[in-house]
Write a structure and sequence with these properties.
Number of helices: 12
CATH architecture of the largest domain: Alpha-Beta Complex
Strand order of the largest sheet: 3-2-1-4-9-6-10
CATH topology of the largest domain: Spore Coat Polysaccharide Biosynthesis Protein SpsA, Chain A
Oligomer: single chain
Strand content: 15-25%
Order of helices and strands: EHEHEHEEHEEEEHHEHEHHHHH
Number of domains: 2
Radius of gyration: 20 Å
Largest sheet: 7 strands, mixed
Amino acid sequence: MRPLILYSSFQTGEFLPEYIRYALLQLASLGNVILLTNRRRLAATEEAFLKEQGIELFLTENSGFDFGMWKRYLEKNPCKTQRLLLLNDSIVYYRKCISEFLEKAEQVSAEAVGLLENKTDKSHLQSFFLYLKNDAITLFEKHLQETSLTEDFEKTIKTFEIAISQKWKNAGLKIYALFSTRDDPIFSYPELILKKAGFVKKRLLERRFSFETQKHFWLNGKSNVLYKDYKKLICMYGDKDQEFKKEFFPGYTKSFVSRNIERLNGIIYRFLAYFYFRFFKKQKTS
């Protein structure tokens, strides 16, 4: 069964990043692919690439994150297939692994299949890759129709990503993650790379995190995960496809100086947190 594939992406400029082209090339042979992206002018070479691969382009406003793009497309074009694959550009696939994922998803009895399950805040599938079957598609489209979009990222996670997994489970549908991790998924990419999973979170390559997210790493003793050289790790141990060139990896979004200031902030923050919990809070409770 060939799925309807919705790949959502927010980008600037006229050209598609190479890691997106690499993903789209994989997807083109697997189903009916729609590239959902923000309204802008694309270079003639990019339009020719999409046409050559049989990929439809759906330009839309940048509102409501990926769920907003999916919602606007499905309102105009309700899913008429028995399989729906939802992806976004927050993941970099560095080997040809997506067809493997779909084969494995078909082999399990779950109606909603993802790559990773987050168990820290109500167990739910992470929405950067969702493979949906029959009833899971119906509930997903209904949830999009009933839920208002928001420009608040954390609220979007709660009202869409977390909420839809809860709705599937409440309806008696099974959810399933193709990869299990011992830790919070965002801390687990070194483990996944060594397992030859074939994908990595883009912002780990870019080291693009808010201060609050960085604190999440620091307070959990995961600074080594935050500051790891993921490009090097993938090239050495990740079974990277030779067709995926090193220059396809997104680069750092911050300067060398900014990155080292962040490291220093992390050391100071961890020291202050240790001092607070070790001495001040202990004296306060006693």
